[in-house]
Amino acid sequence: MKRGKNAQITIFVILSILIVIGFLIFFLIRSETQKELLDPQFVDLYPFVEECMQTVGEEGLVHIGNTGGYYLQSKNSNHVGIAYHFDKGISLLPSKRDIENELSNYMSERLFFCTKNFVNFEDIDVEQGDIETKTYILSGKIRFDVKYPLKIKKGNLVSHIESFEKEIPSRLNTLHNILSSINREQMNNPEQICITCIQRISANNEVLITMNPDPYDSDTILFKIIDGKIKLNGDYYKFYFAHKYRK
User: Fold this and answer.
1) Beta strands per DSSP E along 43-154
2) Do residues 150 and 160 lie in contact, with contact meaning Cβ atoms separated by under 8 Å?
3) pLDDT tens digits for 65-111?
4) String of DSSP letters for 207-234
5) Which among 1, 40, 64, 89 is placed 20 to 30 Å from 226, CA to CA?
6) Span 223-238, average pLDDT
7) Is the pTM of this model over 0.90?
8) How far from 211 is each of 122, 144, 174, 223, CA to CA, in Å?
9) Intra-chain end-to-end CA distance of the chain, in Å
């Protein structure tokens, strides 16, 4: 009886792996098929949008790092827009899904300004649909899946593109784990900072964590995580957040 159950579990695991592989192959083929179906006169359009996704994606990562995980300023922020992740015994830590949604909103709202109505492609006409983004914070990278319907015309030639995908190297997944660890330690000891805990978390994840008092609020400590393994725009990646304590 036990062997039968083990065999069923093994089959289930194998089927799950095959399904995941199938989805990955599907999305890869779909992306490559879109490129192949484009008329050769329009083929430069695809890498142009991908380059814009790279630019906007990197800008979005820097932006949410500067604000504590938000595209638009959180209502629970200090005077310069850095979000509180802890406020007098209450956890305000954004979930990984929350940050994914913030990055999606950044991409969806700003990609259009990078493509600039495709004015660089003077000999073609491009009709653009609404941009919708899904973002995935993965191990060692961020993946942006962007639905960006384009109808490209030149004379009697017409081609369509529906979606794009871009991956950007990032340790944001690791950084969120660090934020969660710091938050747990803080909730266990709401009245003070566990310096040895911060040092241990920093060493275990190969980052530098700094802490400084907020010059405008004596109850607030400003944290900064510096990731020396990843650079964006020529500088090491930084993530800021704040904790507020009772006097």
Assistant:
1) 84-87, 90-91, 125-128, 132-138, 141-154
2) yes
3) 999 999 999 999 999 999 999 999 999 999 999 999 999 999 999 99
4) -EEEEEEETTEEEEEEEEEEEEEEEETT
5) 89
6) 93
7) no
8) 51, 32, 19, 5
9) 62
Q: How far is CA 90 from CA 61, 93, 105, in A?
A: 26, 9, 26
Q: What value does the CA radius of gyration of the chain take, rounded to a whole number of Å?
A: 22
| Nearest by Cα to 61 from 216, 190, 196, 171 | 171
Tokens of 145: 């899946």
**Distance of alpha carbon 111 from alpha carbon 67, whole angstroms:** 20
Name 24's Cβ contacts closer than 8 Å, sequence gap at least 6. none
Tell whether the model's pLDDT for residue 30 goes beyond 50.
no
Question: What's phi and psi for 84, nearest 5 deg?
Answer: -80, 130
Q: pLDDT: is 38 or 197 the higher one?
A: 197
Looking at residue 149, its amino acid is P
Output the CA torsion sign for 172, 176, 181, 185. positive
**E strands present in 88-214:** 90-91, 125-128, 132-138, 141-154, 157-169, 208-214
Q: pLDDT of 99-139, one tens digit each?
A: 999 999 999 999 999 999 999 888 889 999 999 999 999 99
> Taking the alpha carbons of 137, 141, 142, 148 in that order, is the dihedral positive or negative?
negative
